[in-house]
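Q: Convert this sequence to structure tokens.
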Amino acid sequence: MTEHRAGLSILTIVRNRSAHFANLVEGLRRSSCQPAELVVVDMSDAPLAAPNTDFPVKMVRLETDGLPLAAARNLAVAASTGFRLIFLDVDCIPLHSCLATLDDILLDQDALLCANVRYLGPNDARGIWTEHDLLAAGTPHPVRDFPRSGVRWEPNPGLFWSLAFAIRRQRFTGLGGFDERFSGYGAEDTDFGFRADAAGVRLFFVGDAIACHQHHATYDPPLQHFADIVRNARQFRKIWGIWPMHGWLDAFAEMGLIILAGNALSVVRSPTPDEIVASRRS
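A:
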């Protein structure tokens, strides 16, 4: 029998990915425990319909032309009621024990928890799928080293990611949530990880809490977010004294878009529409 977890809120933000959203909800339906609520911040061009579930769903509309990640996640928390929060990006499918595993740890420890994300290919999770199918198809992240089971303390706060993570509500609010000075895309989660570390909150990678990331086209480097990344990199440097997003900034510099020297980041030019199209990876 499926267990219902009082005090557990699942939070997601969505922009124009209705098929991914449907699979996320299906993953929640199949989970060994059901949350007290699902809170959805919908930034889509056309509002999404609330899904039919056995747990309450709260749809919160955020009208925007961009992708204000920090503000959207904070809005989701403000609309939620749970004492324990699990954030899932819309392209994540939580597997059967993911929610219960994270929630059990949160009940015991005041920590920042990252779920073990496996990456799916373009033909996976299309139509009818099983957990066995997703586990067979999913590949681990090449840099983030998760244990086969149990938890591992990760001392590098720069490896925190907001794709699939859990935290107690009181801790989230005590840290001030995501810093909305990071507007748009980039570095808002790295800043959050740094602030958690500075406050003595330990970052754990949880091997048994598996979420599968649904495939979608990406940009390498993400030139479509060039202005956001430059602005947020400067903000991060101002706060922490180091540059974030090294791979992306180095790629921008190699393309002649920016000059990065010491404390200074100078924009030479913006990427052209053709360069943005060329950076798209299917």
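The chain has a mean pLDDT of 94.
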